[in-house]
## 1
Amino acid sequence: MKNEELNLEKQTNENFGASSLDEAIKDDAKKADCSFGATIVEVNNLSKYYVSPIDKIKRDYFKKEVKQVKALDDVSLEVKEGEIFGLLGANGSGKTTLIKLLCGLILKDKGEIKIFGNNIEKDRTYLKDVGAIVEAPTMFKNLTGRENLRYFASLSGKLPEQRIDDILNLVGLSDRADTKFATYSLGMQQRLGIAQAIMANPKLLILDEPINGLDPEGIAQMRALFQKLSKTYGTTIIISSHILSEMQELCDRVAILVSGKIVAIKDLNEIVSTTQKEIAKIMCDKPQEAFDIISKLEDVEVKLVNDAVYVRCINEKIALINKSLIKKDINVYSVTIKKRTLEDIYKELAK
Amino acid sequence: MIGFSNMFKAEIYKLAKLKTLLKILIAIVIVFVVSTLLYSALVNLVGGLDMASVNPEEEITPETVEKAELASREYEKIFEAENTSVKMADTQRYTLKSIATLYRYMYDNGMTFDSYSVFGSISSLSANSYIIFIMGIMSTVMLVFASVSIIKSIAGERANGTLKMQLLRPVSKEAMLVAKFTAVYVVSLGIYIFTFLLTCIVGICAFNVDAKQIIAVIDATHVAVMSPAAMIIIYLVYYATIIFAYTALGTCLSCLLKKGEALPIVITMIIAFLGDGIERMLGYAFIGYAGFTINTSWLNALTLQGPVLSYMGLYSMIPIACVWVFGMLAISWFTFRKAEIHS
């Protein structure tokens, strides 16, 4: 990964996200064109329970039934090389527990985790190709940002000083690199956490709510960075967040967790598929007439609310509706399509 | 152990960058200067605390030896009759016995005080006691530094979340534990050796410690003639063992107690400063022999006991310390390996 290619600070704000038409077209083409490699992360029947220390002894040594909190219950998933895989769920659904298990911070009760083909319980060397942020990134308060990065870099082996400078530049902390971590705002701490995760060129990034505390510009910068890492350099990313709109922009697939179980794994391209029904709001000069005409069409739900006609149908029917109204000399002012979003799916599944 | 050398270098870097080394060196210099001034004041103002009431400038005659042995026997009778384990009485008993043993040895071997310096556990305030006095205080400072540093490095970092960040690196838990322990111990020992050499230099230059040959009372009944180098090595081994033991204690408490750094620090300080007194109050010899604090009485420096405590010889101290250290490190190893890091 060449540092100059990732230097987002040289790009103008117009290039972030989909605010320019060309970028939006490019993004869509990239998403449609994606193909992923081998399985990098494999989780099979993973369970994790939290018990008190005394109950743990009773359970493990005396085989007694004890009260335990199911943080994860029989979770299975696979993540392919190069994809951005999202974890969605409410507070306490098990996202952070799963991330901690992937990073080896806590021990599983049942199941298996393989990363790069190896069982992680037996060998921690997989972490040399992994960068991670778990919950809030906490570092040494009395060391500067640069010194913190040097410390963590040295745990992975030697990194050139130039690399640290480039990474600080990349996350927008060059100006504050030599001030103490204790003086950083939440957003700056998060940026430094992201810096320590990516500085060793990891093949797998595991990010637990990495955009917490970032301003809108920072969120856009990080989104662009993660997309570039994934699409250009093939870095696999597992990311959890509460911000569904960001996840929809960023992820290729998402797993939705509810009470420690995975209730669905969705490919985000499917969400905008033309076979899915969409809701459209039609404004015209004769709403009642329009309502009457549309009501006669098959496979279309319609409602008239305050001179606006709402329809629910597949994408292809919208064109038919428009044609029908124009034939009857009804002037259509606007057709606004409310696309089905990740939020809609999440709400359906998380009930 | 995966990542040991990386972790070790990183810990040394951290100690340097946190200015930990600088702060402890400043503290050491301040304590050293204050202790030296205190010692000088005591030498000049207080005179001697010679409990043997024998003038060390006299020649050693059969009468001198008889006098010392009589004083020791008489005091032993008083001590046993009153069944006391009060520290000062026990110290005096040991001192008298040591002096009697020393004088007997010197007389039997034709030694005089002109030719040899006494560098051992005779409780007299003299230039030769300077090193004992200063190093007793310095070793207390170093054991506090070592134990607090390792507690902050494990329990403190677990509480503030940086341990979690370290475990996201390709370093095994075993390597992390050993590297943290080693880094703290190496730094503590390095500072201690620096302090020891400084003390010897100041002692020789300012207080005329005769470095030709040294007689040491190893315990109350054994005397040896050693070269200064051998004596220095014994003292270094002794204090290095104490610092090692307290680093192990701090490690063990940090691994067992998972609620932050305050409780392990408090327990360590209680053991370091009060443990010896508690053991003596309990009054049973086996507690003294087996207890952990037996080697770390900071009061010994102020009463000018040598590093060997009254009823414990150097050669029995080290095995007991080894048993304690082995036990504490084993507990640390097994608990840290299985620990879950939630924050």
## 2
Amino acid sequence: MSLVPFSRREETLFYMVAGFGAAIVAIGLAAALYMEHSGHVVTGMNNQIVWGLPHVFAIFLIVAASGVLNVASIGSVFGKVLYKKRAPLSGLLCIAMLAGGLAVIMLDLGRADRLVVAMTHFNPTSVFGWNVILYPGMFGIVAVYLWTMMERRMNPWSKPVGFAAFIWRLLLTTGTGSIFGFLVARQAYQSAVLAPMFIIMSFAWGLAVFMIVQRVMFAWNAMTVAPAIRNRMKNLLGVFVAAVFYFVAVYHLTNLYFAKQVAFERFILLDGGIFPVLFWGGWLFLGTILPLLLLYLPGLSAMCGSVAIASGLVILGAFCQLYVFIIGGQAFPLEIFPGMEMSSSFFDGRVDTYTPSWPEFILGLGGIGIAFTMTAIGVRVLRFLPEDDLTHLEAAGNVTD
Amino acid sequence: MSNNDRRGFLAASAGLGLVAIAPGVHLMQVAQARPAGEPASKLQRWGMLVDTAKCATGCDACVSACATENGINEKVADPRQAAQWIRKIDLKDPKNGRQHSLPMMCQHCAEPPCVDVCPTGASMKRADGIVLVDRHICIGCRYCMMACPYKARSFVHQPLTQQNPEVPRGLGCVESCTLCVHRVDKGQKPACVEACPEGAMVFGDLEDPNSDIARRIAQTATTQVRADLKLNTGVRYQGI
């Protein structure tokens, strides 16, 4: 398949797109500089809600970065030709989103200038410490993986390197889930189920991002994804979304039944203000039920754009879910004296409120801007467009539903 | 020599004697301080015992003393962003209405979760059990604040001025009660203990069986807050 040279109009359009991405990155960096200069006093974060909106953006990007590589893993590790064609794009998206997420989390640090300290001082008992190794390691492995896929002479190595990336990715998301899972004191976290839950969330969110990027890239090149391939991938997305639902249900049931965190569950699910709204309306209805209907209901799933809309909704639901999980988990008061009523000048025993400030939001958006710009430039300068050979796929039995 | 003269002589001698030995008594106190350059020892474990029966509701002498000693004097518009190294908590048991008031601060755990989670090792426990933050390598990630079961840590949200040179603090770093380590190293008690008008706080070496704190912990029922977490806290409470 030969690619048509870019037209002048298309070239202008590309520069506009890249310029748009760069502008978002620039205002994100300006927000970070403002926060760095003034201190976190200009954010909505405080001494009770210590992690805020930047962490919602960063964790989404990092978790989705790990999950988007799933597409490549299915190709390389499990030998599915349909996904193998998509492996380079999946690797690029992984690197781009990881860069965006890490930039946000680093720029939100109280001392972002101490990046070198973070890289040179390592505490082996810290899950964050593990991540200091896991995240840059992920960059390295995926970069080598892309090289083995895109450089013909290195092709024989793509399977073992792909396998290493697959394992590393599982470790990485286990590490991200365990950042919360190992917090013994907080009612919202301290659960072993969080590590596998984050892995399955990464599968769903990563694939949703991939579906949207793939659709845009095909549209840009005046192509459409073959219906058989689209069906195959949308079914996989549906399975992942349903699996996330299962894990979230287990997590809440464990809290209710086994860990007896009834007051916390009541807060998150019933009377916690914005949090129940985002949980039921945002994550469950918009981010889970509606996408499943769009993906599986015969009338809706055949509709043009249904998969892209479902993917967008899955991403929206992911943000709602993370907001409830991260902010809601901290807003609920810490039980320092279980069974006692507490009050103090430090807001003990009181539900905290959090209003994100503009700099936080813009910093988070800047992270998405980094991922967007890296992807836009990457797909332009290198050959990342999945090129499907349907006859070959059918022969491999990869496009039957 | 008359009786009056003898009395006068004895009184003058006693006075002179007191003046003569006073610096020595003072020096003996100073001599308990650790000489500069000598590392903290594992043979000691500094701790505190709070008698909540003596701690008065509404009294915050310990909080004020801590703020003065450690230079926590900044004005913060949103009180939720203000640093609090020690605070008074009022407790009420909803079942029987019993009330307590007590100071809450870093519990100086033997197994501190903040030290476990700190990515750079800035959160650390000294050999003598005092849990501290190394301001030079704290990156301000706030993971220790997420991990602390006592909400004992604060993040510095805004630039600081007028600091106490002995207690460095800094924008973008996490901080908490240091057990007035700068005073302890000089053989003094933490400021809060000294300021408590009711004598409700006892400071001392938990490892020394002859210390007041160790004897009281051996004789009376004391509580570790969130004992279920098995953190072996250095701060104990009596009466809750």
